[in-house]
Amino acid sequence: MVCWRASVGVPGVEFKKRFLMNKLIESWEMIAEIQWVIFIILCILVFSSTAWFIWHRLKPGKLVKELQVRTRSWWIMCACFILTTVAHPIITHVGLAFLSFALLREMYPLLKLDSRERNVVLLCYAVIPVQYTLAYLGMTTLFLAFIPVFMFVVIPFVLVTRGETEGIVRSISLMPYSLVAWVYGMSHLALLFQLPEIPGFTAGPQGLLLYLIFLVGINDVLQFAWGKTLGQHAVLPRVSPNKTWEGLIGGVLSTTLIAVSLRFLTPLEPWQAALTGCCVAVAGFMGDAIASGMKRDIGIKNSGNAIPGHGGYLDRLDGFSAAAAPFFHLIYFFGVTSAG
Q1: Which of 194, 224, 247 is the last residue of a domain?
Q2: Domain endpoint, select from 126, 160, 194
Q3: How do residues 35-50 score in pLDDT, each as one tens digit?
């Protein structure tokens, strides 16, 4: 690490400029493991974009057009995720908090909540900065209890204080769930930065975050690809007809192999990485299925149109909300508890 030192004759302003430039350069210094994964992601995107371009030229069609739109969106999403991952932890926490806000902001209008529940909605939004602040400050015990313990009681109580009971059961079900799924679950990504130091593990929280982002994203792509190629038997025909057993099994197996291949981003042994990858893939599918069931009940196909080719934030991030917490606890159990 290069450190700037003040010396006689160096003006204070000039020293500050040099110091800030040094910190800026230092912030972009990434370990080799993270650089390799970013390179792999870029190669996949370049290969996919080229393949779809050639396919579209040779045989235009609806499917290849959809793939091109999806890939262009993946370029933007990957750039945002990578920049957020390698940035200063404060920026990472703010970026993740924004995703939680975007998920709630997208879903609440779809639920057609009563206007009298406005105060409860605002309370749910206010929970976001508190939860991520607890994560940033390393207040793990309060972080783990704040939403599932305290807010689980506070929100229903606030609903009751409005003095009316019509529709209260539905609201009591929806509000706490939205916080658990899209704030509590997602905020475990930020909690990765509070893991104790693990001997011999150099990739750090950025490596773990990139590892999970890559696994959840590639799992979704692989389940889609396997389903389109071999899909015959629907897993949940009345909830999500396009999700097949072939796509699920193919995606889980492929994601498990990739998890083992990229375990250099983690402190995991091969069998631990395989189990973690399998759990992430299954959890991602479960989160997607739950979101599909909610959207079908509401009567919509996509939660929004913020991401071309993918729908809304919920359509793209449902897997992260379900996989983040299990991933954190698996890493803690295998990497910290076992090592200790």
Answers
A1: 194
A2: 194
A3: 888 999 999 999 999 9
Domain count, the chain: 2
13 falls within a domain: no
**Residues 243 and 288 sit within 8 Å (Cβ to Cβ):** yes
Confidence (pLDDT) at 29:
54
Q: Looking at residue 33, what DSSP letter applies? A: H
Those residues with Cβ within 8 angstroms of residue 229's Cβ, 6 or more apart along the chain or in another chain: 246
Claim to verify: residue 124 and residue 207 sit in the same structural domain = no
User: What are the helix and strand counts (H, E) for the chain?
Assistant: 13, 2
Range 188-208 burial, b when 16+ CB lie within 10 A, else e: bbbbbbbbeebeebebbbbbb
In a domain, 209, yes or no: yes
Whether 112 and 216 share a structural domain: no
| Average pLDDT along the chain | 86
- pTM, two decimals, is 0.86
Kindly report, residue by residue over 296-318, the tens digit of the pLDDT. Answer: 888 888 888 888 877 888 888 88
Residues 6+ positions from 176 with CB-CB distance below 8 Å: 147, 151, 152, 155, 156
Domain interval for residue 323: 197-340
Query: What DSSP designation does 266 have?
Result: S
Q: Nearest 5 degrees, angle CA 193-CA 198-CA 203?
A: 60
Between CA 224 and CA 234, with CA 228 as vertex, the angle to 5 degrees is 85
